[in-house]
Amino acid sequence: MKIRWKPLIVCIAIPLLVGGISAFATMGAMKDFAALKQPPLSPPGWLFPVVWSILYTLMGIASYLVITSEGLQKHINSAITLYAVQLIVNFFLSYFFFNLKLYFFSFGWIIVLWLLIIATLVLFSRLSKTAGYLLIPYLLWVSFASYLNLGVALLN
Asked: What is the C-alpha to C-alpha distance for residues 36 and 5, in angstroms, rounded to an integer?
C-alpha cells in the first residue's frame, strides 16, 4: 500500500489540533488543578501532554487507514463520523473538568467518551484491523483517566 502523504498529514493534524486547542483553552486552570487532592497512581503533570500527543497521533494514523481502506464508502463515512463525534466529546471533557470544575459531570462525560471510543474502535476494526489496534492505547488511557477523574471528584 502506497502512503498518501497529504491525507496522512491532514489526518494526524486534525486530532493534534483538537488536542492543542483544548490544552490552550484549559491552560489557565492548571494551577488550580495542581492544588487538588489527587488519587493514588496519579502521574506527574508533564506526562499528560506527552501521552496525549502520542494518542492523538495514533488516532490520526488510524483515521487515515480507515479513510484509505477499501471498505464501502458508507461504512467509511459512518466510522469517520463516529470518530469526529468522539473527538468533539474528547475536546469538551477537558473544558468541563479543568475550566468549569464539574468533576462528577466530567466523570459521566468521560464514560460517554469511553463508550464512543469502543464504538469507534469496532467500526475502525471492521475496515482496518490495524486502525482498530491503534485505538487500544487511547481506550486504555481514557480508562485510566476515568479512574483519575472519579478520584478527583471524590477527594475534592
From this structure: 43
